[in-house]
Amino acid sequence: MSSIFSQKKILVTGAGSGLGREIALAFSRLGGTVILAGRNTQKLEETAQAISETPGKSWVIPFDVNNNQSIDNLFDEIKNKVGTLDIAVNNAGVFSFGFVDETSSEDFNHVFTTNVIGLFESLKRELQSMKENRDGTIVNISSNMSIGLNIPGTAAYTASKAAVDALTRVSAKEAITHGVRVFSINPGPLATEMTQLPGESAADRDKRWRDLIPIGRIGDVKEIAEAIIWSCSGQSDYLVGSRIVIDGGHSL
Fold it and tell me: What is the pLDDT of residue 198?
């Protein structure tokens, strides 16, 4: 088990902190070579330093999901450094709070450009690469907000993640004929900075979410990473196009 990804080359976007960092570490603990992509080079280097203490390896490649040239550069570097990807986790994304009539077009477009268009541009290049080998696994990180929670103030984010789900389903049906599996992981609230209100402590955040989630606590990024490990490990090869909701019953 400790080396099941030792021959695998894995891309994780948004790998500098939070869920992305934990996903990258989870793969590296099992021997994977992980390409760490994101905007904050310092945070990516911190993830790489943590990976250096595991059996795995890492490459840091600065990357802006909102910039097509940056996306091209990422995939050019991947091809030059490691060749073809085996696994890609499209985790880069942003959250924005604002009621519909108070949200500017600029803010709405920024959320969609990052969460949908940027993911699409990455997904397209991943598919082009993996189809050549007729093998590969792509995980799109979505959200449980996409499935009908309808929380006021989250219209832009919710709409963007619903689009991610739709893109996942269609691309999964196209890709599986070429031996590539695509599916989404839809987490509920996690103990990361994204779920904290301005000025709110981590303890107060956890207490606030405790009353809103049936299981009685906020989620841990390790729980999401473990699900991704299972879904990419070869133990779930019949999993295609699924939306895997992990949210402690929040969406029930």
Answer: 85
Options 95, 157, 183, 209, the catalytic residue: 157
**Using CA atoms, how far apart are residues 229 and 182, in angstroms rounded to an integer?**
14
33: alpha, beta or left, given left = phi > 0 and alpha = psi -120 to 50?
beta
**Of 239, 235, 237, 233, whose CA–CA distance to 3 is shortest?**
233
Q: Is the model's pTM score more than 0.90?
A: yes
Residues 6+ apart with CB under 8 A from 204: none
Angle at 122 between CA 116 and CA 125, to 5 degrees: 140
Question: Helices 41-51 and 18-29 meet at what angle, rounded to 10?
Answer: 30
For 36, the token pair is: 């760490």
Tell me the C-alpha distance between 215 and 206, whole Å: 13
Q: What is the mean pLDDT of the chain?
A: 96
**Is 157 tagged catalytic?**
yes
Domains and CATH numbers, the chain: 9-246 (3.40.50.720)
Report how far residue 139's alpha carbon sits from residue 119's, in angstroms, rounded to the nearest whole number: 11
Residues 217-232, mean pLDDT to the nearest whole number: 97
Q: Output the CA–CA distances (angstroms, integers) from residue 237 to 97, 100, 240, in the order listed.
A: 37, 40, 8
Main-chain dihedrals φ then ψ at residue 19, nearest 5 degrees:
-60, -45
